[in-house]
Amino acid sequence: MTSSGPDTDIVRKAICSTYFHNAARLKGVGEYVNCRNGMPCHLHPSSALYGLGYTPGYVVYHELILTTKEYMQYTSMLEHKKKQKEEKSAMEEEMENLRKQQTKNEIGKWRRKKQKGRNNNKQ
Fold first, then answer.
1. What does the DSSP 8-state code read for residue 1?
2. What's the burial of 55, exposed, middle or buried (CB within 10 Å: 0-12/13-18/19+)?
3. Nearest-angstrom CA–CA distance, 123 and 109
């Protein structure tokens, strides 16, 4: 952990590359399915993600415990990259629109200044 510094994405990538076969996606209310074999599973009540307040779309787990249901234990939530790219694209689009507006304003100022100079030369 110390070699990654504050960048926890490196650690998440290492966990995902090791436990890729234990990746699960959200199917319904509190129910996940394994991405590779479709086996239904649930967050274990002792998991830190269980009481998170929202349900992550994707998780990676270390092991399954069978009681009344298949429970995932030692889970880590994943952020879906497509969603991050969409958010980034929206932010980039907003910045691009802002730059365009600033450019239009600068061109408008330049034209008014140029027109004012022409009017002063005519007088």
1. -
2. middle
3. 21
- C-alpha 48/C-alpha 121 separation (Å) is 75
C-beta atoms surrounding 123 within 10 Å:
4
**19 CB neighbour count, 10 Å cutoff:** 16
The DSSP output letter for 8 is T
What does the domain layout of the chain look like in residue ranges?
A: 9-78, 84-123
pLDDT band at 106, cuts 50/70/90?
A: confident
Task: For residue 98, count other CB atoms closer than 10 A to its CB.
Answer: 10
What's the confidence (pLDDT) of residue 44?
82
Longest dimension (CA), the chain: 93
pLDDT in tens, 32-72: 998 888 889 988 887 777 777 777 888 888 788 888 888 78
Retrieve residue 21's tokens: 């076969």
CA distances from 87 to 26, 91, 97, 99, 116 (A): 20, 6, 15, 18, 43
Amino acid at position 40, single letter? P
